[in-house]
Amino acid sequence: MSTTTSTPKAAAGKRAPHGSPLHKLLARPELGSVVGAVAVLVFFAFAADGFLRASSLSTVLYASSTIGIMAVPVALLMIGGEFDLSAGVMVTSSALVSSMFSYQMTANVWVGVGVSLLVTLAIGAFNGFMLTRTKLPSFIITLGTFLMLTGMNLGFTKLIDDTVSTKTIGDMEGFPAAHAVFASTFSIGGVDFKVTILWWLGLVAVASWILLRTRTGNWIFAVGGNQEAARAVGVPVTRTKIGLYMGVALGAWISGQHLLFSFDAVQSGEGVGNELIYIIAAVIGGCLITGGYGSAVGSAVGALLFGMVSKGIVFAEWNPDWFKFFLGAMLLLATLLNAWVRKRAEAAK
Amino acid sequence: MTETEARTALVELSDVSKHYGTVRALEGVSLEVHAGEITCVLGDNGAGKSTLIKIISGLHRHDGGALSVEGEETRLSSPREALDRGIATVYQDLAVVGLMPVWRNFFLGSEPTKGAGPFKRMDVDLMRRTTHEALLRMGIDLRDVDQPIGTLSGGERQCVAIARAVHFGAKVLVLDEPTAALGVKQSGVVLKYVAAARDQGLGVVLITHNPHHAYLVGDRFVLLRRGAMVGNHTRDEITLDELTKQMAGGGDLDALVHELKRG
Q: Rounded CA gap, A91 and A273, in Å?
């Protein structure tokens, strides 16, 4: 690989390496995370008994999918050049709205699910609107939303239900159907898998399609890569960014409904800290933190790494306190590897 | 000359001014852009060249005087509107998104699509092919239009932007200091493409602070200093020496020569 940069004159054409399959592979944003995922898989295959069993795989995939569903829209947002620190608690807000609306109105749970979708999308639109209107950094805007949502989640729940948890809606009309859509299990060859895995894979497919094959995808890369250039050639920057925040909200709604229908009540203090895990998954997956570069598939590999490490530690019967250490080390390694790979890819022109 | 006067200018500014708060950015500037001609706007840093571009390209609105596009007085409200009226602007540094492939940059903001509903998608094959062909016509043979545009040289990037404007049927091409960051050879290449665009019948506005580059290709010369217009000449009214002298500050230059003269 090093020869491509050190001896440019030896190559017949100056730009020849760009077309080569090796170069194409090196230029993929998710390469670093795939290498990391394979390494972690091999590591736990030896370190943890039964890590490669189908039932363990199912557990790992479930853990990955709960992060992955959010990592996909968070990755798109990061490619578009922004953060959303409110993503973690927004999931809880979405679940709370759904649950409390159904309970208080004694309505079919699907009414609550619908209202929750509207409210969550409105929160996303608020983030995007504030960002494009005030032109403040998204870090500040969404930190504000994060704090406000955290307070509202607890405040409203205590106000309405007198405790930090919502009333159970398990016996309400429509619950079995909603449970089937958001939190059921299905079985392949005798192994049970959670339905969230399908949601996750579906989101990755849709997001990849949008990014790579639609005009919107072109605009997402452009607003993240060079916002002023994008605006100058007529890209609707404001609309694209608000859309990206509403995408995060859509992910939060799916995750929130899963949270609610997995059980039948919601703890209002949940979700704090998860926003960073989504961002970490996206970064490990090759998204450039400054925007303009990355992929949805990468975010999925990042989420898979997260799932493997979090469950691998359990299977290896280690103290779960070490999980955070692994996560941090992985983040650093993956980011370094990504930076190195990208430099290689760009230098070989 | 009389023939040119009779034609309607593609873009005409008469006595245009622009203030940011109490700061006068531009005052009483007039210029004409005709098809198949290059109008050069010359000025030092802070002369108001950027403000002038922003008005013509629709980023800012002027607050005095008149801007006419093909004889119709107008006020451009957005870059999109300027583009729709055939005015394309190529910026010195923000013309492209460096990390994106050449073909994505080429069509950015005007991507061709095929299919309908949820399956409406970019016509990627057409985009790749068109990009390659349009650049080939400009004399750039890229083996891989998938490479990030940031890996091209500065001159090549300018040419991609010019080729893009020509491809999308611009009638007026506004070029912001296309040669400012380039070496002598690259500058020559870019000027060649500017002339090629003119020969295809486009009206070109060339913003520069280099009178030599301007005089190589220009038909009209507008000089700006501290937001005010200090000269407006056609090519047969002025020589390169005079242009250089006016550009350098005219009387101020004489004073400087006197000052620097060793006793």
A: 12
Among B89, B110, B151, beta carbon nearest to A346: B151
Predicted ipTM? 0.80
- pLDDT score for A6: 37
Does any domain span residue B123?
A: no
Q: Which one of B80, B83, B97 would you mutate to disrupt binding with A, by most A Cβ within 10 Å of its Cβ?
A: B97
B59 and A CB contact within 8 Å: yes
Please state the domain count of chain B.
1
According to DSSP, the residues that pair with B32 across neighbouring strands are B12
Alpha helix ranges (H) inside B16-153: 49-56, 79-84, 102-107, 124-137
φ, ψ for residue B186, nearest 5 deg: -60, -40
CA B220/CA A311 separation, integer angstroms: 72
List, in order, residues 6 or more apart from B226 with CB less than 8 Å away.
Answer: B46, B47, B48
| CB proximity under 8 Å: B 214-233 to A | none
Parts of chain B with a pLDDT under 50: 1-5
In a domain, B190, yes or no: yes
> Which structural domain range is residue B17 located in?
2-97+169-260
B153 touches chain A (CB under 8 A): no
Least Cα distance to A221 among B101, B6, B115, B111 occurs for: B101
CATH number at residue B76: 3.40.50.300
Terminal CA-to-CA distance of chain B, rounded, Å? 48
Task: Give all domains of chain A, ordered by start, each with its CATH number.
Answer: 27-347 (1.10.3470)
| A214: nearest CA partner in chain B | B121
Q: Which chain A residue has its CA at the smallest distance from B95's CA?
A: A229
Token duo for residue A52: 């490669």
Chain segment A231-285, per-residue pLDDT in tens: 878 899 999 999 999 999 999 999 999 999 998 889 999 999 999 999 999 999 9
